[in-house]
């Protein structure tokens, strides 16, 4: 038998239940892994509350790292004993052991431990496609990153700086501003009340070609107002709530802007996508260009406490749950 955090109904952190479950066995093209670290992400809260739909009862969690225990037929990319990590669906990472399609797994290189890997795969691969595919950030550009002291935000700031960009980070407190500055943000704005005006001052009126916004409802309009003509609004999260419907003509009146809502499952839909992104991520970490800040750690059985801290914005960097 194994153990897992499961939900039987949508709601607050109290719906997270620590339960005994049968240990699954790998079928064809699958691998059984023992988790050593599980990543905590805001998308877990979306599934818990019902903003994103899942069949109930459900085991939450989108990323993890550990050791392969067994493999099914036709599996060639991993073998028992390999240290591996993964990110993306299906749900099920909040568990001591799980079965997953082996094509989702990547072997961990020497120099990256499972705790770091469990904290960085979803956030790191998200940062990879945001910077390299959704909008190809170029040296000399000034970009805007919301939640710059969060898990994805810190990676975005560091990686964009490594690419030669000038990063404006947006945070919610002075304490988080210091963290963002220490991780690649050349300028930091606390709060978003006067965001566009402050961006205008920093850029000498040019504004920015891209905004990476994971906050959602509270920052959407301010983000649009911070863009240069023909700029791209990248809305990739809803930490403050879903963005209400708006008139698409607004994009025209604000400078013929572009708007995209990228999804991890689309950008990481194939084994090749996962391999390419993971290789770039591991290389950036091993070279020192990226430092993964695992600032919080909770026992997996205390996932409710971890969710409470994340929702209250009391966390910085990455958080892991340890089985």
TrEMBL record:
Every Enoyl reductase (ER) domain range: 11-321
SMART domains: PKS_ER
Secretion signal, residue range per the UniProt entry: none
GO molecular function, one term: mRNA 3'-UTR AU-rich region binding
This protein's UniProt keywords: NADP, Oxidoreductase
GO CC terms in record: cytosol
Protein name as catalogued: Alcohol dehydrogenase
Organism, scientific name: Acidocella aminolytica 101 = DSM 11237
